[in-house]
């Protein structure tokens, strides 16, 4: 019959294995680079154009927005979009090729104040984002 110490050690080993297995199930996130965005006529919304996989028939896609960041100052706006690939394999040994790129999709970023000449910078690359004006501007 196992001793109480051996039972506790065995239970601890099982729990550690379960925690590691569950941690491997979490889909990793990544910061996507924003190259262009369209400014709404009121100057309060930037619509970033990203490149990803083809949308399924129901409109969903492998990529999903995990989070968005907008950091505003009087002279610039730093924007960031964190993505998650829901089609990526859970474990490295399941690596399969899937075509992720080639189709554009939009993500809206809301500003607290109108852009009004401030520079927009991508957080990931630290490069200036090209801003297009939405149709409807006067």
Could you characterize the architecture of this molecule?
The chain has 138 residues and is of the alpha/beta class. The protein has one domain (27-133). Helices cover 16% and strands 38% of the residues. The chain has one helix at 4-25; strands at 29-32, 36-39, 45-52, 63-72, 76-85, 103-110, 119-122, 130-133. Strands 1, 4, 5 and 7 form a four-stranded mixed beta sheet that branches. β4 (63-72) and β5 form a beta hairpin. Mean pLDDT is 82; it is low at 19-24.
Detail the topology: elements first, then pairings.
Layout: H1 4-25, E1 29-32, E2 36-39, E3 45-52, E4 63-72, E5 76-85, E6 103-110, E7 119-122, E8 130-133
Parallel strand pairs: 2-8, 5-7
Antiparallel strand pairs: 1-5, 2-3, 3-6, 4-5
Give a quick set of tags describing it.
138 residues, alpha/beta, four-stranded mixed β-sheet, 1 helix, 38% strand, elongated
Q: What is the H/E order?
A: HEEEEEEEE
Q: What is the number of beta strands?
A: 8
Share of residues in strands: 35-45%
Mean pLDDT: 82
From the spread of the alpha carbons, the general shape counts as: elongated
Number of domains: 1
| First and last CA, distance | 84 Å
SS-based class: alpha/beta
Number of helices: 1
Brief summary:
The protein is an alpha/beta fold and 138 residues long.
């Amino acid at each position: 019959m196992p001793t109480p110490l051996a039972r506790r050690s065995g239970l601890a080993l099982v729990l550690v294995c379960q925690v590691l297995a569950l941690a491997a199930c979490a889909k990793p996130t990544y910061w996507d680079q924003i190259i262009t965005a369209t400014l709404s006529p009121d100057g309060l919304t930037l619509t970033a154009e990203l490149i990803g996989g083809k949308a399924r028939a129901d409109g969903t896609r492998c990529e999903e927005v995990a989070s968005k960041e907008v950091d505003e100052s009087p002279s610039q706006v730093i924007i960031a979009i964190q993505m998650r690939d829901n089609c990526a394999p859970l474990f490295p040994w399941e690596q399969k090729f899937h075509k992720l790129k080639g189709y554009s999709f939009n993500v809206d970023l809301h500003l607290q104040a109108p852009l009004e000449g401030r520079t927009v910078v991508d957080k990931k690359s630290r490069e200036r984002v090209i801003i297009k004006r939405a149709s409807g501007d006067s």
